[in-house]
Design brief:
alpha+beta; Yope Regulator, Chain: A; 6-stranded antiparallel sheet; about 30% helix
């Protein structure tokens, strides 16, 4: 099963210009790396979009429509900060923007100088 190319295009368009963005085939889909850290993956299964978010905000994000704990195989949770988002919850551009903003916020926390 191939990943959703149209969703990949939408994610690509939503990511910021002027940042180091790279695409990598990963998790059976197409992962988007920002500053060498994965932010999202358009999946071939298990949710249309896999996102990497802050553990501190994980519980709140799980309350969003179409969001659930990501699994690496049936019953094998990926843990806090990894969320799978159903395609039906990404139809509107505002919904996709919500998740792109969430992953970029976490990415900025991870790449900030300490």
């Amino acid at each position: 099963m191939a990943y959703d190319a149209a969703l990949a295009d939408r994610v690509r368009d939503a990511l910021p210009d002027g940042r180091a963005v790279r695409e990598v085939k990963m998790f059976g889909g197409l992962a988007f790396m920002v500053d060498e850290k994965m932010v999202a993956c358009v999946s071939a299964g298990g949710g249309a979009l896999l996102v990497r978010v802050s553990r501190d905000r994980d519980a709140g994000y799980l309350e969003a429509p179409g969001a659930r704990r990501a699994e690496m195989g049936a019953g094998r949770s990926m843990g806090e900060g990894w969320i799978a988002v159903d395609g039906d919850a990404l139809v509107r551009d505002e919904d996709l923007r919500f998740w792109v903003d969430a992953v970029l916020e976490f990415n900025a926390e991870q790449t900030a100088p300490r």
